[in-house]
Every structure is written in C-alpha cells, then in structure tokens.
Design goal:
By secondary structure, the chain is of the alpha+beta class. Helices cover about 35% and strands about 25% of the residues. It has 2 domains: about 20-145, Roll (CBS-domain), CATH 3.10.580.10; about 165-265 and about 270-405, 4-Layer Sandwich (Phosphatase 2c, domain 1), CATH 3.60.40.10. The chain contains 12 helices and 17 strands.
Length: about 400
C-alpha cells in the first residue's frame, strides 16, 4: 500500500562519474504485487521519473517507461481494466542491465548498441545480478560529456563516433526511400560533425510516411535531441497510425514536453523542441496528407508555372510555450503523376550569402526548383546544393541543412 507523502527528490551524483555505479539514482521501485494504479501514483509523485524499475527479491524484472505507461492508461477503458492488475502488464521485460563497475565509455557503447530505447527508458545497474539501482540516458550523456571535456582528443574521437551513430540512425530511412521512390533527392549536412536535423522514411503496404525534423540547436546538443525524438517517433510509427500526421505530431509534442519537463508553468529548465513536416502518401488514392510545424511543403505539379508553397501551423513541437494539448492540422491534396514534393529545414532558407549578404530565401529555392524541373531529382538536388554553397561563399554556415524531395 502506498502512503501519501512528499517524496524526496531524485538525487544525482556530484562527483565526476567513472563507472555505471556512479550514475546510480535514488529512484523508487515497484514490485509485481503492486498494481498499475500504484505505479500511476508513483509517477505523479515523482514528476522527474522517466523509468520505474520493477524488482522482486533483489532481482530486476524490468522497467516501466513513463510515457508509454501514461499513454496506455489514458486510452479508453484501459485504466478500468488494468488499474488493479499487476504492474508487469506494461513493463519492458528486457531492459538494458549493466554491471556496476562498467566504465563509462564502455557503458556508452552498450547503451548505443541497445538502441534508442536504452537512451529514453534508462537502464538497470546490478552487482552479479543483484539490483543496485537505475540510471537514465540523460545522466549517461552528461557523464560522457563531462569526461570527454577533460581531454580535447577524447572529445573529438567521441564526436566523430557520434557522427557514425547518427548516420546509422538515418541509414534505414535512406534505404527504404531509395527502394520506394527511385526519383528522389536527399541532402543532409550537419553544420558541425553532428547536428540537429534528421529525417525519417517508412514504407507500408498502402503508402509511405516521411518526416523532416529540425531539432533545437546543432552540434552535440542538437544530435542528442535527434536521438531522443527519433526514438519517440519510432515508437509512434510502430504502435500508432502513420496515416494521421497531425496526430503523430501531437503525440510527439506530449512526449517531448513530458520527457524534458517542459510541461510546467514555472518558466524554468530547458525550452527545446523541433520544427517539422510529417506526411503520408496513399498509393491507391494518390492523396498526400501532411501536417507542418513551422515547416512548409513546396509542390511542383506538371505544367505548373510556379511552385506552390503549402504552409503548416505556426506552432513548434515540444517547446515550453507549446500547449500540451495542441492539435496540428492535417491538410490533403491529390497529386498528379509527375508531381514533385519538397521539404527543407531553415538551414537552407536562412543562410546568408551573395553580394548583398541576405538570406538564400524561399523565392530563390522555388526558382531553382522551376529552373531544373526537367532533371532527375538526384541531379536537381546536386545543382541546388552547388548553387547554395556558391551563394554562401565565405559566410559561415548558420545551421544544419536538410533538403528532401520526391517525384510521384
């Protein structure tokens, strides 16, 4: 039985961590005898708690992810059916489990090898199988950053490795895109070694889902945001409906705000999020359904004299000022054969250059799409990016750059 009280804050180690045990957090645990209602109380009492370990007789059984659990319990009738059932109903039975004295660098490789789930859910720390505690991906990221700051050589080695990891996250989307849409263009260029832009492409039997996302920042902070948001989007596409891009944006907004504690009104803490365009194309009807968060689509139909700019909502995803319940708007359009659809992050639009040192701009981009419309998109993309670099000249790169397009 849980008793109402003011829970102690989750404390983090003050010294520089050297091994997994140094990351151990003083977090509450649950046991199989506790019900899902008990777990809900724990999550309400510990607003900063991301993953709740489930332990029995000093043996770790799994982790309950806060976002997944809360989303499931919010569904119609789930709380009534599962509220008094064992908390293992929504438990991840295969969390990452590490030995207490695993060095931080080796631990980071284990977490990355385990996939995005270990970053978002956290991991369990044991001593010869006996439960000692839990830690979060955020604390691991912080520990790695602090340790790498000791020596510049280690910083650069780690950033270079992070670039490989980030590119590996994008590789499945590149492969599916090439297999589904032979006539496409895709240019992804971080401003630094790693960046805050990323893209997702998933093919289904009846259509495909695509997303271009521009996370807050660039470099290492931006890259961490891409890993977090990519893991959330993977789950939403696996367990939700990709045919409703606006709903996916809404779910993403709630998950980012909750995980970064940006759902309060105290005005403290981070204010991170993303701009994005999510779209679904239905093969049978040739209908394009899309929702945008401060990111437009550019559409060039066969025979059109200009490129149509389709603006999305003027509300970013996940930011402190974005309401938790904000609903984005789906827009739909039937595409003629040969229609080109393009999305870019603001790294292209806002880049300063040219003799007047002004932004590259949307008008210039639309003009180039018109000028090279007869070319295959891969070649068209090369021409645009060559002109973009020439325009930039000696001006410093302002942001990460992503340009994506396909022709139906």
């Amino acid at each position: 039985m849980l008793h109402a009280s003011t829970p102690p804050p989750i404390t983090r180690p003050a010294s520089l961590p050297r091994c997994a045990l140094d990351l151990k957090l003083d977090v509450p645990t649950a046991c199989p005898a506790q019900h899902n209602e008990d777990v809900m109380h724990l999550f309400h009492e510990h607003a900063e708690l991301i993953g709740l370990p489930v332990v029995e007789a000093d043996q770790p059984l799994g982790i309950i992810n806060r976002n997944i659990f809360m989303n499931e319990m919010a569904r119609p009738f789930v709380r009534e059916i599962y509220g008094r059932k064992s908390c293992i109903a929504f438990m991840d039975k295969r969390p990452l489990t590490v030995e207490a004295h695993t060095p931080i660098q080796e631990l980071s490789f284990q977490v990355l090898a385990a996939g995005s789930k270990a970053l978002s859910d956290g991991f369990i720390i044991v001593d010869n199988g006996r439960y000692l505690g839990a830690a979060t991906g955020f604390d691991l990221v912080s520990a790695v950053t602090n340790l790498q700051a000791e020596k510049n050589r280690l910083v650069m080695e780690s950033i270079d490795y992070a670039s490989v990891i980030q590119k590996s996250f994008l590789r499945p989307s590149r492969l599916e895109l090439a297999a589904t849409l032979p006539d496409h263009l895709l240019h992804w260029e971080p401003r630094d070694v790693v960046g805050g832009d990323f893209f997702v492409f998933r093919s289904f039997a009846d259509g495909f889902f695509a997303a271009v996302i521009d996370c807050t920042g660039h470099g290492v902070p931006g890259a961490f945001m891409t890993l977090i948001t990519a893991s959330y989007l993977d789950r939403l596409l696996a367990h939700g409906d990709p045919r409703d891009p606006a709903r996916v944006l809404g779910e993403m907004n709630r998950m980012v705000k909750a995980s970064l504690a940006q759902d309060g009104e105290d005005g403290e803490g981070s204010d991170d999020g993303m701009d994005a365009a999510f779209l679904w194309f239905d093969h049978a009807t040739r209908s394009l359904t899309w929702a945008g968060a401060k990111t437009p689509l550019f559409v060039l139909a066969p025979g059109a004299v200009d490129v149509a700019q389709l603006d999305g909502d003027r509300m970013g995803v996940g930011y402190r000022t974005t309401p938790m319940a904000h609903a984005w708007t789906n827009r739909a359009q039937v595409l003629e054969p040969g229609t080109g659809v393009f999305i870019t992050t603001d790294g292209v639009i806002d880049q300063v250059g040219g003799p007047k040192r002004i932004a590259f701009g949307k008008r210039r981009l639309r003009g180039m799409l018109l000028e090279h419309r007869a070319l295959p998109l891969a070649e068209q993309g090369e021409r645009i990016m060559r002109a973009f670099r020439d325009y930039q000249g000696e001006q410093p790169r302002r942001d990460d750059v992503t340009l994506f397009g396909f022709r139906i």
